[in-house]
Amino acid sequence: IEPSLTITNTLAVTATLVPSLTPTVNNFVPQPTEPPPSPFPFVLRDNQVIYTANFANTAQCAWQGIGGQVFGADGSPLLNMRVHVFGQGVDLYTVTGSNTLYGYSGWEVPLNTALTSNSYIVELQTSEGTIVSPQITVTFVPDCTKNLALVSFSQTRSF
Fold it and tell me: What is the DSSP string of 44-92?
């Protein structure tokens, strides 16, 4: 018997899993949300303080003040609401409807007999003194065409 030489190749394949460092894409799209409602039933009308030249009296540039109106949820003027203006040594109150040069529910608080760059806070209250609006900051610039700040409020819900 003659031996024969037989060569056999055996190939073993093993699989090794290697973690991928490829990032996954997150397709999250934030959805717009409504801002939370104001804790106050009144807000600054049109979200702005309007600065204009004094039209309410003849003092022209020798005067500085704040005036405005207050409107109900239906747009009608509201009377007998209390307006509080304070800051820079001032602490004054007036009521809506007391100065109809600004409209039926108009009000005004004179502040100075000269132009200043003072800042004041305006807030709306019920006739009993409950605060029903956020505090609005009014900052003047010493300019004759901007010595009257118009601050009006609109009702957004019942109180």
Answer: EGGG--EEE---SSTTTTS-EEEEE-EE-TTS-B--S-EEEEEETTEEE
Sign of the alpha-carbon torsion through 79, 81, 82, 85: negative
pLDDT in tens, 50-97: 999 999 999 999 999 999 999 999 999 999 999 999 999 999 999 999
**Cα–Cα distance for residue pair 103/96, rounded to 1 Å:** 10
Band of residue 111 on the pLDDT scale cut at 50, 70, 90: very high
pTM: 0.77
- Taking the C-alpha atoms of residue 9 and residue 110, their distance in angstroms, rounded to an integer, is 105
